[in-house]
């Protein structure tokens, strides 16, 4: 097929080649009409086409080569495949053979395995059988051992049983002997029985005789029996009473012992109490000692202080005597001091008022002095003015006089001239003269006025100078008056006032010193109080926390104290209960303090003693009862103690209760006995 | 810290004084043996080793009092702090450690810090605490079981919280007083003194 395919391919390629070859011819042919173009181009194109065809041919050839190679390869492949297939076949055949062999081998293996398994199984079975056999063997061995042990045990048992049989035989023998003795006893008893039977028969006969005879006696006998029973009961009661009496007789001894023990207890308690009391007393005495010693010291101090105070008292009394005042008590002193102080205060007040008044007066005076000076100056001025005016007035008066005189003169002249006129013609001359005179007058008047003005000026100046002089004199006089007043004052102030003032000054200085000392002392006290922690309640307050350690500690202390008190009270109650009971009973209250070992031992001893007593009583009672019954039975007489040393015997066969014998016994060396009464 | 390098403010001064009281009270309790020595632990403060309590209840109580005291120091309403030591058996006051506090109220108004170095203040506090330790030599022995209490003297009109109550001054009957050193932060001045009951020696 491949070859066919190759052939086809070859054919196909040949066809294609041919076709190709034909195509370029066509293409060439097709391109022939296109000669219109250049020949080179045609050549070029032909070359190109030829090259392309060549290439195609080359490619085709390469293709053909490749195809050929491929075909060769395929052929080789096929050959290889064929060979491989052959080999495969062979190998498959080998495989199959081997497989067959394997199967056979496997079968063999299986067979072998089966055989092995079987063999194993057989082995196991055999092993198991062995084991089982071993176990059986062991079991058998064990069983054999057990059997041996059992046999041994059985042997032991047998031996034991044999021993036991021996013992039992011995016991049997003993019992047989006992039996024999008992038989003998029985025989004896039987004999006794027989005897008693005989007696019984006799007695029965008698009884029948009696019965027959005494029907009423049976009743009486019944009554007797009843009475006897009562008697017996009473005797038992008497026995009990006697026992009780014996007990009672013993009781005082016990009570004595108890009393002794109690006394000892009380004595011990008292001693304890005494010890505690003594200790307390010693402690109290020690404290008292300490207190007394402290008191002694304080007393010494107090005595010293007392001496000091006495000295001071004497000093105060001396002061009282020295001052000469009526002083008996310090109260008087204080009163007088107060009075003196009051006087001083009053004097001081007066002094101050006086000083103030003096100062005010001086002030007013000093204020008034210039006014006075001014007023004086004014007065002087006015005086001067007045004088000036007086002088002026005088001057004016003088002028007036002068003028009047001049007038008069002039009038006279005029009159003269008038008189003269009539006479002559002297008028112009007169007129001239008059004018001259008038001029002269005027001049004189002006001169006068000038002079007067000058005078007035001078007078004014003189007046001013006088004023100044008077001012100065006034000042001088004022100063002189002051000096005079001072001197007057100095002279007026007497020695007494000076001395009194000096005294006042000294007293004031002393007071100041005292006040300073008091101030220092008060400051010291304040400082001390401040150091101690004092404070002004108005300005300050003291606060602290409510839950502070001191309050907590105090609370704890009070709680402890209360707990201790409660415990003490409980202990006291317990003690009282114990003392009231007198016997160590079980405590109803809870035990707070465990009892001491001595008390426990004493309690145990007490209990044991009581138990012993009780047991002894019971034993004695029993023994006495037995003894008494034995005596009664054996001797036939019941012995009772009626009074001390008197014994009463009553017989078994007594008919009446009162039939008894009374004896009196005195236990001396010889042992006398007397018979007191005999009653039937 | 309000204690600036520049100076001391009112708040810083209050804190310094409160701190001093905290350590001072612990030292007094240790020195006088009010509480067992094993309940105290050593700490370093003011360049010296001091004892501080480890008891929780006591610590709680001290912090309560000191915190309230700090407030009052800031308000300048506290005048004194007193440590009172009482004997439990006889309920007598045996010792009184009194610290007077003077507050400069102008510091409250102005607010400007004052110039005083913290080292100088600490030096002064150190000397006071040393003196407290040294007083143990001449104070009488406290032989019985004792408890202590802290009293604060304040202005009369101050409102106190509910847990605080008024109490008496708890003065000592027949006492000897000793004045100790003082220190100042330039705003608060603290004077210390101790008063103890005179012992009648046999």
TrEMBL record, chain A:
> Where does the protein end up?
Nucleus
* Keyword Cell cycle tagged: yes
Question: Taxonomically, which superkingdom?
Answer: Eukaryota
Keywords, sorted A to Z: Cell cycle, Cell division, Coiled coil, Mitosis, Nucleus
Question: Where is it mostly found?
Answer: nucleus
Cellular component terms per the entry's GO annotation: kinetochore; mitotic spindle; nuclear envelope
Q: Which residues form a coiled coil?
A: 40-319, 372-399, 434-461, 491-626
Q: Name one GO biological process term.
A: mitotic spindle assembly checkpoint signaling
Q: Supply the Pfam families for this chain.
A: MAD (PF05557)
Record InterPro entries: Mad1
Q: Which family does it belong to?
A: Belongs to the MAD1 family.
Instruction: Give the protein name, as stated in the record.
Output: Mitotic spindle assembly checkpoint protein MAD1
Q: Which organism is it from?
A: Cyprinus carpio
Point out the gene that encodes the protein.
LOC109078424
Automatic annotation (TrEMBL), chain B:
Q: Name one GO biological process term.
A: mitotic spindle assembly checkpoint signaling
Give the signal peptide, or none.
none
Q: Which domain of life is it from?
A: Eukaryota
Chief location of this protein? nucleus
- Where do the HORMA domain residues begin and end? 11-194
Q: Which GO terms describe its cellular component?
A: kinetochore; mitotic spindle assembly checkpoint MAD1-MAD2 complex; nucleoplasm
Per UniProt, subcellular location reads as: Nucleus
InterPro entries, alphabetically? HORMA_dom, HORMA_dom_sf, Mad2-like
Kindly indicate whether the keyword Transcription belongs to this entry. no
Q: Look up keyword Cell cycle and say if it applies.
A: yes
What family does the database annotate?
A: Belongs to the MAD2 family.
Protein name as it appears in the record? Mitotic spindle assembly checkpoint protein MAD2A
Organism name: Cyprinus carpio (Common carp)
């Amino acid at each position: 097929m491949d070859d066919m395919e190759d052939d086809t391919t070859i054919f196909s390629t040949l066809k294609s080649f041919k076709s190709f070859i034909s195509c370029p011819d066509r293409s060439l042919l097709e391109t022939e009409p296109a000669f219109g173009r250049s020949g080179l181009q045609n050549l070029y194109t032909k070359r190109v086409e030829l090259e392309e065809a060549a290439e195609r041919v080359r490619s085709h050839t390469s293709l053909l080569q490749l195809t050929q190679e491929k075909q060769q390869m395929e052929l080789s492949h096929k050959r290889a495949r064929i060979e491989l297939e052959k080999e495969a076949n062979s190998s498959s055949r080998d495989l199959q053979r081997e497989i067959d062999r394997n199967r056979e081998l496997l079968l063999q293996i299986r067979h072998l395995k089966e055989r092995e398994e079987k063999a194993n199984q057989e082995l196991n079975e055999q092993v198991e059988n062995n084991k089982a056999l071993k176990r059986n063997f062991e079991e058998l061995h064990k069983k054999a051992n057990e059997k041996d042990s059992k046999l041994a045990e059985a042997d032991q048992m047998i031996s034991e049983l044999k021993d036991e049989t021996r013992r039992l035989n011995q016991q049997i023998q003993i019992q047989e002997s006992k039996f024999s003795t008992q038989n003998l006893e029985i025989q004896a008893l039987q004999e006794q029985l027989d005897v008693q039977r005989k007696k019984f028969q006799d007695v029965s006969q008698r009884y029948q005789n009696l019965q027959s005879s005494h029907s009423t006696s049976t009743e009486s006998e019944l009554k007797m029996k009843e009475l006897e029973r009562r008697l017996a009961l009473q005797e038992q009661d008497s026995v009990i009473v006697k026992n009780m009496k014996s007990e009672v007789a013993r009781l005082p001894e016990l009570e004595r012992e108890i009393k002794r023990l109690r006394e000892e207890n009380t004595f011990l308690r008292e001693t304890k109490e005494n010890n505690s009391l003594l200790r307390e007393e010693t402690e109290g005495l020690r404290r008292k000692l300490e207190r007394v010693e402290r008191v002694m010291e304080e007393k010494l101090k107090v005595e010293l202080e007392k001496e000091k105070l006495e000295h001071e008292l004497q000093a105060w009394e001396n002061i009282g005597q020295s001052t000469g005042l009526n002083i008996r008590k310090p109260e008087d002193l204080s009163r007088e001091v107060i009075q003196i102080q009051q006087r001083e205060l009053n004097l001081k007040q007066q002094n101050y008022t006086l000083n103030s008044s003096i100062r005010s007066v001086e002030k007013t005076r000093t204020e008034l002095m210039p006014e006075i000076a001014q007023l004086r100056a004014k007065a002087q001025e006015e005086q001067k003015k007045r004088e000036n005016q007086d002088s002026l007035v005088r001057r004016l008066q003088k002028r007036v006089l002068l003028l009047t005189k001049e007038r008069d003169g002039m009038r006279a002249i005029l009159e003269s001239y008038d008189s003269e006129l009539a006479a002559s013609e002297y008028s112009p001359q007169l007129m001239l003269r008059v004018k001259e005179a008038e001029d002269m007058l005027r001049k004189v008047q002006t001169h006068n006025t000038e002079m007067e003005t000058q005078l007035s000026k001078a007078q004014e100046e003189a007046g001013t100078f006088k004023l100044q002089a008077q001012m100065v004199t006034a000042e001088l006089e004022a100063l002189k008056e002051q000096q005079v007043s001072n001197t007057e004052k100095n002279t007026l102030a007497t020695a007494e006032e000076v001395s009194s003032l000096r005294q006042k000054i000294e007293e004031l200085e002393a007071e100041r010193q005292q006040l300073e000392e008091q101030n220092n002392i008060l400051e010291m006290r304040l400082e001390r109080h401040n150091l101690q922690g004092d404070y002004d309640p108005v300005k300050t307050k003291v606060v602290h926390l409510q839950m502070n350690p001191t309050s907590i500690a105090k609370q704890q202390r009070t709680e402890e104290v209360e707990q201790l008190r409660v415990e003490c009270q409980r202990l006291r109650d317990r003690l009282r209960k114990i003392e009231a009971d007198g016997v160590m009973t079980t405590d109803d209250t809870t035990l707070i303090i465990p009892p001491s070992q001595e008390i426990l031992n004493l309690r145990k001893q007490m209990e044991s003693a009581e138990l012993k007593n009780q047991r002894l009583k019971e034993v004695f009672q029993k023994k006495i009862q037995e003894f008494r019954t034995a005596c009664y039975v054996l001797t036939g007489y019941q012995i009772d103690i009626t009074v001390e040393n008197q014994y009463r015997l009553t017989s078994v066969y007594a008919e009446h209760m009162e039939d008894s014998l009374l004896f009196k016994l005195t236990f001396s060396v010889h042992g006398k006995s007397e018979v007191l009464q005999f009653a039937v | 810290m309000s204690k600036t390098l520049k100076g001391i403010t009112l708040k810083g001064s209050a804190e310094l004084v409160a701190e001093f009281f905290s350590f001072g009270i612990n030292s007094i309790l240790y020195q006088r043996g009010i509480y067992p020595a094993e309940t105290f632990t050593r700490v370093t403060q003011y360049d010296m080793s001091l004892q501080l309590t480890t008891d929780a209840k006591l610590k709680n109580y001290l912090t309560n009092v000191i915190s309230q005291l700090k407030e009052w120091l800031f308000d300048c309403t506290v005048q004194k702090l007193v440590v009172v030591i009482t004997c439990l058996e006889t309920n007598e006051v045996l010792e009184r450690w009194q610290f007077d506090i003077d507050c400069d109220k102008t510091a409250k108004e102005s607010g400007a810090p004052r110039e005083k170095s913290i080292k100088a203040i600490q030096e002064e506090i150190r000397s006071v605490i040393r003196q407290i330790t040294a007083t143990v030599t001449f104070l009488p022995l406290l032989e019985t079981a004792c408890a202590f209490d802290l009293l604060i003297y304040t202005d009369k009109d101050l409102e106190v919280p509910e847990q605080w109550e008024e109490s008496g001054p708890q003065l000592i009957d027949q006492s000897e007083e000793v004045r100790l050193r003082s220190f100042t932060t330039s705003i608060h001045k603290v004077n210390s003194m101790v008063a103890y009951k005179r012992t009648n020696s046999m």
